[in-house]
Design a protein that fits this description.
The complex is a heterodimer. Chain A is mainly beta. Chain A has strands spanning about 10, 20-25, 35-40, 45-50, 65-70, 70-75, 85-95, 100, 105-110. Chain B is mostly beta strands. The relative contact order of chain B is 0.32. In chain B, a hairpin with a 4-residue loop joins strand 5 (about 50-55) and strand 6 (about 60). Classes of the chains: A mainly beta, B mainly beta.
């Protein structure tokens, strides 16, 4: 059971927009800690996609965006492409656990 | 370009102590600007943070593993190490090392090793 809750799977057709939610509580996201998002392609290490709720590292397409409100955060992907098919994870910090926490991951399927 | 490379035994026996190392190249592990950490991923499952360390030796560990884990840094070898004692089959996972983007443990991981699979089995 992960501290941060993500839907196990989402899907969308090429060109569509999908969102992935990450729900926490007052000890993590709601406490003001930043949310970071990763993309993990099969058999590879995770890649940082969004940091500090809304920021994209250099080289990440603008199709990927992040938002945060209250105790939740979301990753949005627009103009869905076949190679977006991957697992996506959110990460934050939990002050009651005094440590980094990850969401359980969401598998994105491009139909 | 910063590179991280994990190394380890591949197969470990139950109740033994697992030792993994992560060699950092293309950058300084003794920089005051970053935390360094270990994350693992059981086969077919999600990511689990194990712990993070600052160059000074300051450490944070996940509560569920704290009694069995030691993370250390050897700046002379530019290596990060993970010791996990009394391993069981539940510790079977791909183990990643990573660099956090700043000198706070809340920071994201921007560089990752390719991961090393550790199987715990007799």
């Amino acid at each position: 059971q992960s501290v941060l809750t993500q839907p196990p799977s989402v899907s969308g057709a090429p060109g569509q927009r999908v969102t992935i939610s990450c729900t926490g509580n007052s000890s993590n996201i709601g406490a003001g800690y930043g949310v970071h998002w990763y993309q993990q392609l099969p058999g590879t290490a995770p890649k940082l996609l969004i940091y500090g709720n809304t920021n994209r590292p250099s080289g990440v397409p603008v199709r990927f965006s992040g938002s945060k409100s209250g105790t939740s955060a979301s990753l949005a992907i627009t103009g869905l492409q076949a190679d977006d098919e991957a697992d996506y994870y959110c990460q934050s910090y939990d002050r009651s656990l005094s440590g980094v926490v990850f969401g359980g991951g969401t598998k994105l399927t491009v139909l | 370009q910063l590179q991280l490379q994990e190394s380890g035994p591949g197969l470990e026996k139950p109740s033994e102590t697992l030792l993994l190392t992560c060699t950092v190249s293309g950058g300084s592990i003794s920089s005051r600007s970053y935390y360094w950490g270990w994350i693992r991923q059981p086969p077919g499952k999600g990511l689990e943070w194990i712990g993070s360390i600052y160059y000074s030796g300051s450490t944070y560990y996940t509560p569920s593993l704290k009694s069995r884990v030691t993370i250390s840094v050897d700046t002379s070898k530019s290596q990060l190490s993970l010791k996990l004692s009394s391993v069981t089959a539940a510790d079977t996972a791909v183990y990643y090392c990573g660099r956090q983007t700043s000198a706070v443990v809340t920071a994201p991981f921007d560089y990752w090793g390719q991961g090393t699979l550790v199987t715990v089995s007799s």
